[in-house]
Automatic annotation (TrEMBL):
<dbReference type="GO" id="GO:0016987">
    <property type="term" value="F:sigma factor activity"/>
</dbReference>
<dbReference type="InterPro" id="IPR007627">
    <property type="entry name" value="RNA_pol_sigma70_r2"/>
</dbReference>
<feature type="domain" description="RNA polymerase sigma-70 region 2">
    <location>
        <begin position="28"/>
        <end position="99"/>
    </location>
</feature>
<dbReference type="InterPro" id="IPR014284">
    <property type="entry name" value="RNA_pol_sigma-70_dom"/>
</dbReference>
<comment type="similarity">
    <text>Belongs to the sigma-70 factor family. ECF subfamily.</text>
</comment>
<keyword id="KW-0804">Transcription</keyword>
<protein>
    <submittedName>
        <fullName>Sigma-70 family RNA polymerase sigma factor</fullName>
    </submittedName>
</protein>
<dbReference type="InterPro" id="IPR013325">
    <property type="entry name" value="RNA_pol_sigma_r2"/>
</dbReference>
<dbReference type="InterPro" id="IPR036388">
    <property type="entry name" value="WH-like_DNA-bd_sf"/>
</dbReference>
<dbReference type="GO" id="GO:0003677">
    <property type="term" value="F:DNA binding"/>
</dbReference>
<keyword id="KW-0731">Sigma factor</keyword>
<dbReference type="InterPro" id="IPR039425">
    <property type="entry name" value="RNA_pol_sigma-70-like"/>
</dbReference>
<dbReference type="InterPro" id="IPR013249">
    <property type="entry name" value="RNA_pol_sigma70_r4_t2"/>
</dbReference>
<dbReference type="GO" id="GO:0006352">
    <property type="term" value="P:DNA-templated transcription initiation"/>
</dbReference>
<dbReference type="Pfam" id="PF08281">
    <property type="entry name" value="Sigma70_r4_2"/>
</dbReference>
<dbReference type="InterPro" id="IPR013324">
    <property type="entry name" value="RNA_pol_sigma_r3/r4-like"/>
</dbReference>
<feature type="domain" description="RNA polymerase sigma factor 70 region 4 type 2">
    <location>
        <begin position="127"/>
        <end position="178"/>
    </location>
</feature>
Length: 183
């Protein structure tokens, strides 16, 4: 591998990928795939689905051409990569839901609870747990993405397929509802 590629940041690697540089793509994949796999596993316990989403994500990176460099230039390249992967994961959940004829809201749930959710559930007192369960599903999804997964408003918007303003509104409503339920 060219020593030159190892010194480039991810944004520059993406700009080279946009020009068709296969070595830059390989370096970008080497750097980001382990991290992206971990992030996807936090949202989904199905290893086959994670592998499928990972493959679709990097295929989209390779095929997206010039738009990659333009989109990544507006923010971090790794953040851009996560938004692509998050959308692919949501799409995969929706495809699965259609195949299994389940409502889409049920399909967004991971197959097994994430480790963070398990720890929080074990430590959470009954009042907070009941307050969370009383929230409408759309508010719970926003809260889960922003609090447990640490996603930004933009990333949550892309993951859940809703406008950023709606994400902000739902997050505010969830906080108010929790505050009222616990006071």
């Amino acid at each position: 591998m060219s020593r030159n590629l190892e010194t480039l940041d991810e944004g520059e690697l993406l700009r080279r990928v946009a020009r068709g540089d296969r070595s830059a793509f390989d370096e970008f994949y080497r750097r980001t795939a382990p991290w992206l796999t971990v992030r996807l596993r936090r949202r989904c316990a199905d290893e086959d689905l994670v592998a499928e989403v990972l493959q679709e994500t990097y295929l989209a990176v390779w095929r997206s051409g010039g738009s990659v460099a333009h989109d990544a230039a507006r923010g971090s390249a790794v953040g851009w990569l996560w938004t692509i992967a998050a959308r692919r994961l949501v799409d995969a959940f929706r495809r699965r839901a259609r195949r299994e004829r389940l409502p889409a809201a049920l399909a967004v749930e991971p197959v097994a609870p994430a480790a963070e959710e398990q720890v929080l559930a074990d430590r959470m007192d009954a009042d907070l747990e009941q307050a969370l369960l009383a929230l409408p599903e759309n508010l719970r999804q926003v809260l889960r993405a922003m609090v447990l997964d640490g996603l930004t408003v933009r990333e949550t918007s892309l993951l859940l397929g809703m406008p950023e303003g709606t994400v902000k509104t739902y997050a505010r409503r969830a906080r108010i509802a929790l505050r009222e339920a616990l006071s």
